[in-house]
Every structure is written in structure tokens, then in C-alpha cells.
Amino acid sequence: MNIAKFLTSKRFMVLIIFGLALSNSVHAGKIYKTVNKDGTTTYSDQPTPGAVEVDFASNTTTVVQNPTVKTKQLKIIKQKKPVEHEISVASPAIDGTIRNTMGNVTISASVTPNAPGHYELSLHEQKLRSTTGTFLVKDLPRGEYSYQINFVSTSGKVIASSAVRRFFMHKPSALIKPQTNSN
Fold first, then answer.
1. How far apart (Å, rounded) are the C-alpha atoms in residues 18 and 21?
2. Residue 86's beta-bridge partner residues?
3. Percentage of the chain modeled with pLDDT above 70
4. Under 8 Å CB-to-CB from 95, ≥6 apart: which residues?
């Protein structure tokens, strides 16, 4: 007989139905309850002396409830917003011209909010350090200078930086005397 024909035949369907009926009867086996001499109860699918058959009604249901679990409320830790520090440069003015025959310039800055640390001035490939934010730079030749000031915390981290700024050093000559009009 061909397999395709057998799978669609009445004989195959009868075998399937008979197999399902047997499988239900296996699950519908009897359960016996025995109360032992020490008072414990034993349930089994095999009858023992003194065992009583347990009758399970078809509408028997088992309800399992989740156990009540007490949970502890965790503390909510609010993260602090990082403090934004800002450097303001008081002098010299942006793109300002410094007129000093000695080539000296004072650069001053401050950080807000106040914090422990120091200031670092980067000027013409030099690094200068100050705890007050005031730098006196001497003997600069004429020319254009770019600089930046960083504020460094006690842990060594740069927490604020100024923009790169510039100034122009002008050294008036001591030999040139101003002319006076005497008309």
C-alpha cells in the first residue's frame, strides 16, 4: 500500500482515534490515599492495604497564588549636576594693544564659582602658573600674542578654559620725542 494513500485512509484515522482514547485513559488512572500509622498521608497510583480511592471531580481546579513578597524600597540617589566653572579674563582687552616700553603686560583672570586649584597661562609656547589668576609677563618683544588660561583643580583636571585670545605688544621708542606745535 502506498504511504500517501494509507495516511488518508479510514483505517489510519481509526488508529489515530484509538490511540488518543488510550492516551486519555492512561492519564485518567486512579489515585489512592493512605493514612499511615504515624499520621502522615501518602498518595499513590498503586493500591496499598487500607488505601482509599480518591475521587477527583471533573471540575477540580488548583489555584496557585503568588506568595506575597515584601520588597524594600531602594533609596533614590539624585545625581548632582556637575558644577560648570567659567573663566573670565579681566585684562588685557580682546585684541587690545599694550603700549609699554619695557614689553611688560599683566594678564588677569578669575574663575566662577570659586574652587580650589590654580591657573595656567599658555602664552607664546610658555606655560606660567598662578594661584591668584594674575600673571606679570616681562620683556615681550613687539608683535601679536595669542594666549589661553586654564583653571586646574587640585586633582589635576582642567575644569575651565578661556577662549583663545590675543593682544598686540607695542613698544614706543624712547628716542622719538613727541613734536609740539609752536606757532
1. 5
2. 112
3. 74
4. 165, 166, 167, 168
The one-character DSSP state at 9 is S
The mean per-residue pLDDT over the stretch 150-172 comes to: 94
Residue 151 near residue 121 (C-beta atoms within 8 A): no
**Residues near 85 by Cβ (< 8 Å), separated by ≥ 6?**
111, 112, 113, 115, 151, 159, 160
CATH of the domain spanning 86-170: 2.60.40.10
| Residue type for position 66 | N
- d(CA 129, CA 148) in angstroms, rounded, equals 12
Q: Answer whether 0.70 is exceeded by the pTM.
A: no
Locate the domains of the chain by residue range.
86-170
Instruction: Characterize the bridge pairing of strands 126-130 and 31-35.
Output: unpaired
Contact 87, 159 (CB under 8 A): no
Rounded alpha-carbon distances, angstroms, from residue 32 to 39, 42, 70, 149: 16, 8, 39, 91
Residue pair 166/95 in contact (Cβ under 8 Å)? The answer is yes
